Amino acid sequence: MIAKISSTENLGGALGYNFKKVEKGEASILLAAELYQNKEGRYTMEDVLADMEALIPEKCRTKKMVFHCSLNPHPDDKFSDEQLVQVAREYMEALGYGNQPYIVFKHSDIAREHIHIVSLRVDGEGKKINDRFEKRKSKQITDTLERKYNLIPSSKVSEKAVTETPKVDTIKGNIKEQVANVVRMVLKHYKFCSLGELNAILSKYNLAVEEVKTEFRGKKYDGLVYVPTDDKSNKVSTPIHASDIGRGVGYTAIQNRIRSRNKPSNH
């Protein structure tokens, strides 16, 4: 699990970023601690912003008083909403924010679900929450959570790959480029022992791989195509031949990877 923490003066910006995703159906609110809930049992951007602003003392010396972090599990880690809430609570408590107002959003706009948390870095008296060695402390907390919940350690896969590779989205265009980025990232950072396992990984990024057989000048060839899909694994675009993506992603390269993984150990 990877935590990314930032500080900002712009409370509206931090909340707005998350609430806009809620409006688009790309995020949901999992928890709001010490914050106002309206008569319909909902939390609105306006209410949460007003509530948090009211809790900031007028003579607050801390300029960047807004805490914004994301907790990013490995794509293969599976959580229920209740488990994500528990992880968020434990993380915030251990970091010193257990008594602070904060709101937790679950994002599902990229290949693996993750959470964002927005809080205040000052208490009701204007005293700043201790943030000395914050990143180091945060890493210790996520390491503890990984052990407690038997999660895949963040060191097993590149942080950049986990947190920044989006799902293939045919609406955005540049489909071949999107597919190439996902395929190269997966081949670089993941291990698999069969085409089925590779497909399971690719499915998280709205992509599938299929074996095709072709004939050229009387000679038969095995090949691969990569097919964009939706979240339910339905095909949504024309297959892209591996040869159109580049070297190292075709049938021979993938089969060599699979054979090397399945080769018996000498030990």
- Strand line-up across the major sheet: 1-3-5-4-2
Q: How many domain modules? A: 2
Global shape? elongated
Note the main sheet.
Answer: 5 strands, antiparallel
Protein structure class: alpha+beta
InterPro entries: Endonuclease_MobA/VirD2
Protein name: Relaxase/mobilization nuclease-like protein
Domain MobA/VirD2-like nuclease: 35-151
Pfam families: Relaxase
In short:
By secondary structure, this protein is of the alpha+beta class. The protein folds into 2 domains: 2-156, BirA Bifunctional Protein, domain 2, CATH 3.30.930; 175-262, no CATH class.
Structure description:
This protein is an alpha+beta fold. It has two domains: 2-156, BirA Bifunctional Protein, domain 2, CATH 3.30.930; 175-262, no CATH class. The chain has helices at residues 11-24, 45-54, 81-95, 134-148, 159-164, 175-189, 195-203, 242-245, 251-262; strands at residues 2-8, 27-33, 66-72, 102-107, 114-120, 207-216, 219-228, 240-241. Helix 1 runs antiparallel to helix 2. The longest helix has 15 residues, at 81-95.
Ordered list of secondary-structure elements with their pairings:
Elements: E1 2-8, H1 11-24, E2 27-33, H2 45-54, E3 66-72, H3 81-95, E4 102-107, E5 114-120, H4 134-148, H5 159-164, H6 175-189, H7 195-203, E6 207-216, E7 219-228, E8 240-241, H8 242-245, H9 251-262
Antiparallel strand pairs: 1-3, 2-4, 3-5, 4-5, 6-7, 7-8
Helix pairs in contact: 1-2, 3-4
